[in-house]
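Note to self: the last two entries modelled the partners one at a time, which told us nothing about the interface. This time every component goes in together.
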Amino acid sequence: MPSTNHQLPPRIKRIWGLSALGSLVALLVISGLLWLAHRYWDWSIWVPIFALILTVIEPLIEAGLIPYRYRFTRYHITDLAVEMQAGFIFQKRVAIPIARVQNVTLNAGPLLQWQKLTKVSIATASTSHDIEGLELAEAERLREQIMRLAQEARHDQA
Amino acid sequence: MTKPKRTHPLGLLQHIAKSIKDYWFLLILVLTSHDYTSIWFWGIMTILLVAFFIWPLAKWLTLTYVIAPDAIVVHSGVFVRHHEHIPYARIQTVQNKQWFYLRPFKLEEVLIETASHSDSAPEARLTAVPITVAQLINHYRQVATTAPTATDPQTDDSPATATEPAPVTATPQPAAYYQINYRDLVKFGLTSLIFIPFLLVLLGLYNKIPHKVADALIDDASHLGLTLLIGGAIVIVLIAWLGAFLWTLTRYYHFELSRSNHQLVAAKGLFQRNTVTAPLDRLQGVRIKQNILRQWLHLQTIQVLVASKAASDDDDNDLVVMPVIDNAIVYRTMQPFIQWLPSQQPDLSALRVARSWYQIRNTMLVVAVPIALLWWLWPSWGWLSLILLPIAALQGRFAAKNTAGALLSPKLLALQTGHFWERELYYIPTEKIQSMKVTRSIWMKRTHLAHLVVNIRHGNHNQAIELRYLHADAAHAIYDWYLHRT
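The predicted structure of the combined assembly is written out below.
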């Protein structure tokens, strides 16, 4: 069965954007706490300044990389294997034979639920690999397909 | 049918020993009070009594087991009851441990492990049971693994026939057998590098010496000069080495390996005889290992990787199937035991590192940080840390030179790596590979290189075997083959 390289649904970019925003908030809170530490416990002023610099830079990088992250994250399912690709600067490709798949888990945090997306984790006997976000229907279909193929593969072996 | 049985009362000793091992720190409490009349003292005594006697006793009383024809059932737990059912077909390894004091009673400890991730502890642990129990388990296990294919319709009466005769007739003649001789055992002990942890323990003890004594020692040492210091250091290393040697000797005493009915059985040990039984088709891979000493002496150690923690207290968490063997006869000796191994040293040049430079650079960068730190903290002594640089460079070169691998057949992949002067050669049946990964950075595109990672199950976790800085075409060839293989 030939199949094409799939990209993640475009809405995932919105979620990555929000998670960058989340990092910003978290880092702001940490910087605030460090400033309090400076104010009351006489910590060096450089600690909160450094944290603040980080607060600005980290979410910017995270947000800036979203188009690349989207562009280079792909998955691919054939009768024999699931393949995932990710990364631009550090590229990786993972191959998981369907015969080795132990279980497929769908889970979604509040953000993914809001966007009607779900994360798909494919676990083997030793490793676990994630597809970061898929449409619910697509994910269900994928799970059925992998589990069906996995069962067939197992029958063949035994 | 069979009623749940308790383990032998001697098993209680084992339970007590385990609680002492787990709660030894409670004994410190005794030192806090010497007043025999105070409530505090008696409170401590009660705690100790409960921790080291009543609790183990309760555990022993509540643990029962049944060796049924279809599964092993273990009931345990004092307040929370556990009922563990282990079907024979799911067992990965059975481990029998026999302490010397159990031998006269024909008892042993039996640990049964499956591939389940759930716990670091074995699925079932029977502290002192007659040795016939393990034989019975083994028997049912072989029935379970062979029956479904051959005698499917007769599943009803096969358990009946299995229970009727004496549990086990004479064990079948092994198809292959190996026993270590004293010369090899001594060689193995002498070339073991566990003297390094022993050395650390000795140094730790040095820290425990009261300051006055230590100062006095240093005073003396400064009078006596450098020769004595070096002499002392050598003596300490020798003591550690001897300790490690004796330790290895007792643990691998009378090592035996045999194969019968598609099972590998490895037995070893003087004070505690440790026997591990693993089915051959459950082996996740074979690892041939050489530390630096053994590389010089052309000796190798062979381990098998299994999907359970059976050998977690072995050195390096693996089941050793051949403690020490000469390079020249490795394959000839091992093939009768594990038949899918190649019959001679294969050619592993398909995957290799063309230029060592990248790994040398990386290891040197890694040590650059501590060197800079040392230089900054102790400017006058910092230059001494420069010695780390050539060591790191050599280490990088070692890693690069020892990276090798090849797809020997569609069923067997061989991968070799070098880490910290230890060479490891893995043979992995391709159907045991859980997943495979190729990674590269954009800079490696220009140099046309890639890293290859092969994931296999090992113990209760994943082992990633990483071959770094391979030629990209070679790495992708293996990866694509794996992705498209039928």
